[in-house]
Predict the structure of Short-chain dehydrogenase.
Amino acid sequence: MTAKHIIDMSGKVVVITGGSRGLGREMALGFAEAGADLVIASRKLENCEAVADEIRALGRKALPLGVHVADWEDCDRLADAAYDEFGKVDVLINNAGMSPIYDRPVGITETLYDKVLDLNLKGPFRLMANIGERMIADGGGAIVNISSVAAIRPKKNIITYAAAKAGLNAMTEAMADALGPTVRVNCIMPGPFLTDISKAWDMEAFEARARSSIALQRGGKPDEIVGAALYLASEHAGYTTGAIIRIDGGSH
């Protein structure tokens, strides 16, 4: 392994939404270990502060922000705060998301529908538009959207979530076209990962289902997404934009 093949994010500033837990926290710590400074955003400021402390313990700078990504003005506030603190953003990771439980489609209220679409789709759009333009002015950058295998494997219990993530896939390709040639926009489609959310799952039922519907016959470990995010954010992916990478254990 030569130095040029090692991903070094030293001097880079990374903004990550939904960065206080689950895959977001795992990616945030991974980028910090690679040398980046982080802006950690999620709705609960105290959770962001806890992750920021972990990042500072690694010798990196961190800015925790309580932000509701579903809110257009909050997205702009996040962008302004990041640039005020660090003067630039090299990498934006749109990770915040939600998939609420409901019984039948008719039980999805307009409020719930709007919440899902706003958080999973509207927020990422606004952040890509706002920060993407600033990246262009600064000479370039990288955006990584975190979608879901639900975008291509929609089921009855994730209708609005699947639609929003399918929209995020399409938006990834469109934004790659809009923000090129200096800003790259790519997407990761995770399958089921064993994050804190999985604690609410019926694990016996999940494991039985995994044996027949996932080639690797298990859920993902949170750190198994980090390498792909680092790659897409780094110069190693210099000729990669508009790409959508499945990390789902071979879900089918």
